[in-house]
Amino acid sequence: MVFNSLAFLVFFLLFFYLYWFTERRASINWRNLLLIIGSYIFYGWWDWRFLGLILISSSADYLLGLQIHKAAGNKQRKFFLILSLCINLGILGFFKYFNFFTESFAELLSLFGFQANPSSLNIILPVGISFYTFQTMSYAIDIYRGQLTPTKNALQFFAFVSFFPQLVAGPIERASRFLPQFAQKKTFDYSKTVSGLRLMLWGFFKKIVIADNFAVLAEPIFNNPTEYSGLGIIFGSVLFAFQIYCDFSGYSDIAIGLGKTMGFDLMTNFNKPYFSKSFGKFWSRWHISLSTWFRDYVYIPLGGNRVSKARRNLNLMVTFLLSGLWHGANFTFLIWGFLHGLMLIIEKKVKWAGPMAAPFVFALCCLFWIPFRAESIQHLGVLTTQLITIDAIKILPDLIHSNLLRYSAIAGVFAVFMILEKKMKDLNFSEYVNEFSKPARVSFYYALLLCILLLGNFDVKPSFIYFQF
């Protein structure tokens, strides 16, 4: 089930009614049970077989979290932690990386003259597996570190893992911050619900008006790169940069807004990253829940900044290579991670400054999206070759020429969107519009709805980019 689908609209209206209709009579356990049932329906809508994996992951970490906490000695605690990590990483590794590693190993053997026939399975990648796996892993790790006491309430834990607004694409919540919210009595809060609905409206606008319209322009460039000049490839990378940002941050806004309507506070996942003046700032503002996860569970345990410069640089590179691999079983993601790691290492010695710092970082981020978007090393090779092509071939997709009025209007709306993003600074959309007068606020809502109805792309299949990760 996808947020921008009719099925979800019907599902959420029914769920919202049941959730708050039982407000006065329902116990905390009953409400958590309702959350679990609703979340499993939401998740099983894609493929009911996926439910088995989330049940295994939830059950294993619930039980092993208790065992880690009550284990007699450090050796026992470490054993249960390793068992938890093996279960989670084993599931993730099989479904996401089995074919990648077997095929890569076969290619490596062929370099030394050995012939190997890799066994490729028709493995369906479960939606959101990378997100909920990392969420449950952090739970077990925090208990092992003594930073968290495990819950004995299974309903609270299962609701925490499966919470449908953020289940399939985050934010990746920490149990220490989010799990206690499932132990709290919820009462309907009108102002919080309105704030959530505002964020949802903003998220749908970003997704349907900007991301989905930019997607249909970027696709022909990336799918047929030989038809485009270097400027065309650059234009495509800029389109994809805003497509993926508005797609993913739009999802996050909808998820956070949905959480608010049910009395939950999810962490901020994006904070205007393309205005960053350094790659360090970019990664403190882009996919914040994932970047902080890798910082706390990979970079710092490797030694972080507390080691020699050479070791620190190695730690950075390992962290970003793993971050690239997290995104997908493809060498192109490793290249993307390497490039970002390299820039962070360079920034330790060279500081970008002045008015051109932010445009410089943004330009490099756009170029780095090319390997991220490439479907294979061969595809990346073609895209890279076309980057230095200056022949008089296409720069703009044909769709722009045939729908000039529509895309001129979208360009105008996008310009206004960027101005608003800049003006919001560190505020989210709901906080920002709350400062407007009521007439201006209501007018703005209608303007967004009008943009969605008139300029929204409803022809594409409802989906979000990060579902594939």
Topology:
Elements: H1 6-21, H2 28-44, H3 50-70, H4 74-111, H5 129-144, H6 154-162, H7 175-178, H8 190-223, H9 230-261, H10 279-283, H11 288-299, H12 309-327, H13 331-347, H14 357-373, H15 377-387, H16 398-402, H17 404-424, H18 429-433, H19 438-455
Helix pairs in contact: 1-2, 2-6, 3-4, 3-5, 3-6, 4-5, 8-9, 8-19, 9-14, 9-15, 11-12, 12-13, 13-14
Would you kindly provide a written description of the structure presented here, covering whatever features stand out?
68% of the residues lie in helices and 0% in strands. By secondary structure, it is mainly α. Helix 3 packs parallel to helix 5 (129-144), helix 11 (288-299) crosses helix 12 (309-327) and helix 12 (309-327) runs antiparallel to helix 13 (331-347). The longest helix is centred in the first third of the chain and has 38 residues, at 74-111. The radius of gyration is 23 Å and the shape is globular.
Low-confidence stretches: none
- Which outline best applies? globular
Would you count the extended β strands for me? 0
Largest sheet: none
Strand content: under 5%
| Radius of gyration, CA atoms, in whole angstroms | 23 Å
Alpha-carbon distance between the two ends = 16 Å
The secondary-structure class comes to: mainly alpha
**Tally of helical segments:** 19
Helix content: 55-70%
Query: What integer is the average pLDDT?
Result: 89
Report the order of strands and helices: HHHHHHHHHHHHHHHHHHH
Overview in brief:
This protein is about 70% helix and about 0% strand. It is mainly α and about 475 residues long.
Which descriptors apply to this entry?
single chain, 469 residues, mainly alpha, 19 helices
